[in-house]
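Limitations

Structures in this collection are predictions, not experimental determinations, and the ligand pose is part of the prediction. Treat each record accordingly. The example that follows, with pyridoxal-5'-phosphate as the small molecule, is included so readers can see exactly what is and is not provided: the inputs are given verbatim, and the output is the predicted complex.
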Amino acid sequence: MNVPFLDLKAQYLLIKDEIQEALNAVLEATAFAGGPFVSQLEKEFAEFCQTEQCIGVGSGTDALWLALLALGVGPGDEVITVPDTFIATAEAISYCGATPVFVDVDEKTYNMDPNKLEEYIVTQNSKLKTQNRLKTIIPVHLFGQTADMDPILEIAKKHNLFVVEDACQAHGALYKGKPAGSMGDAGCFSFYPGKNLGAYGEAGAVITNNAELANKMRMIRDHGQEKKYYHGCIGWNARMDGIQGAILSVKLKYLPSWNDGRRKNAALYSSLLNGSDSIITPKEMDYAKHVYHIYAIRTKNRDELIAKLGEKGVNCGIHYPVPVHLQNAYASLGLKKGTFPVAEKVASEFVSLPMFAELTEEQIHYVADEVKTCLGK
Ligand SMILES: Cc1ncc(COP(=O)(O)O)c(C=O)c1O
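Predicted complex:
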């Protein structure tokens, strides 16, 4: 049996007619860059996330970068995030001229450990005293489960820091009933094709309840324009394509049922894999509704497992093999192996199994059986 890691074609075939209709509408309206289809998606996505504002942009990386710029993060500032994330979280900080700093993750959730966050801020504040370079915290909702937001928001409030949620993997996830991305000063989403809500190309969005912040981001994404050819600040071109807006509007309607499909598939995987000593399955926290963008198990024999599964037609991934502080791109930070022991340990054990809503029970049984066989039950 062949089990792909992701099957975008299976999803497309289910909504093909609606997508073609949406594409035709954009072509007929020639509304290609920004425009009414993007505005419509913004309205719908804001409603979905229960926020007042949504700004459609070119990618999740743009979303993070614009949110930080609009909050005034700049050269000399430090932004706290986690090492186990896609590198874009750190890149957005660097592209503001600021420095990414990291706190370790929690071993159960793989998300920011609030105790480590508090510890870090207290130590830094005592060192920096008057400089006060810490500006913002970026918790990442890794794999589709939100970080433990209440303590993070409380710490941020106490130390006067902004919170930008990296919700690029968490469309529709909940924390104590609240949508991912809606709790901080801003929440950032990627609509990269493989995401739970994916465009047919690059796209992203920022959500916020802060109208002033939203206006700044709208200006920055469009060359700092206040009105046509009147530029109030130096911005950039970070607009969303009309075609992506129209496609995302079609797909947003299906997101809750697709997320339910992922949750059902994850539950089946876990029921089949739990009990094996050599595997740790993902843990859904009491506060969370996990949307399983990634279903990552942990095992000590990762490379062997991936190779053997590949021979059996099961395609896996690793998200992500090298924590950001150990990437060559960030060698200048001088952070050595051992600095963030939990993040490093879990990154060396992660294996992402095939996960998408259209996976069949037969495929899941096959993958789970092969995993258990490869690891000797
Ligand atoms: C956690 C996280 N942050 C940021 C991004 C960047 O999003 P994009 O690829 O749309 O720029 C991604 C996308 O993979 C991501 O997973």
